[in-house]
Amino acid sequence: MKITLNIWRQNGPTDKGRMVPYELDDVSEHMSFLEMLDVLNEQLTERGEDPVAFDSDCREGICGMCGLVINGQAHGPESTTTCQLHMRSFSDGDTIDVEPWRAEPFPILKDLIVDRSAFDRIIQSGGFVTVNTGSAPEANAAPVPAADALEAFDAATCIGCGACVAACPNGSAMLFTAAKVTHLGLLPQGQPERHSRVLGMVSAHDAEGFGNCTNIGECTAVCPKGIPLETISRLNRDLYTAISKGDRD
């Protein structure tokens, strides 16, 4: 099929940036979206033009590096990562707009690549967990209720892609932060620093310039791992408890 791509091109953080149109013929419906961009870049390179810069790594929906805004939707029209989006989701003759994540804490480095190191700093602000070092403990030594284990596992599936931020009208990263707080807060290993962790991570979230959460729910609608909105409710409960106790250990 034949498609027209309007792609955001920006030479660097200080460049103004602009949308540039490209036409591609003979696009297979079996191509992933990133494979289609690979084909475009091969053609641009052959013509002596600068290829489109975009992030990718595993291309298996695991690493979260491939985030793009496609036709105004984070990761595109399907509930999956960009690398797992296939061209069969589009039709012959379609015009597709491709942009980077749009959020102040995610500055554009070049074209479709943004700096998501703000997420790293939020995680780092959570500190460590207090556990005994040495040989690994017996797996059943610390019983965990099945419901808590399942909820913790669901939260831990967050891949930090940033789609929640790109979709949120407020540019909030609260779904990401809540997922990182929740998966430790539900497990015995995460209890000693539970309250100091939520205080530190929410403080880092705000310091990075992410917006406030107003429970609109766009974050969960685009999350490729289906992190539920209730995760934010759990963070809010932990945060309220930590503030009430004045726990800043």
Short description:
This protein has 8 helices and 7 strands. The protein is an alpha+beta fold and 249 residues long. It has 2 domains: 3-41 and 51-110, Beta-grasp domain (Ubiquitin-like (UB roll), Roll), CATH 3.10.20; 117-245, Alpha-helical ferredoxin (Fumarate Reductase Iron-sulfur Protein, Chain B, domain 2).
Describe the model.
By secondary structure, this protein is α+β, with helices and mostly antiparallel strands. Helix content is 35%, strand content 11%. The protein has two domains: 99 residues, Ubiquitin-like (UB roll), CATH 3.10.20; 129 residues, Fumarate Reductase Iron-sulfur Protein, Chain B, domain 2 (Orthogonal Bundle). The strands form two sheets. Strands 2-1-5-3-4 form a five-stranded mixed beta sheet. A two-stranded antiparallel sheet has the order 6-7. A hairpin with a 2-residue loop joins strand 3 and strand 4. The chain is elongated, with a radius of gyration of 20 Å.
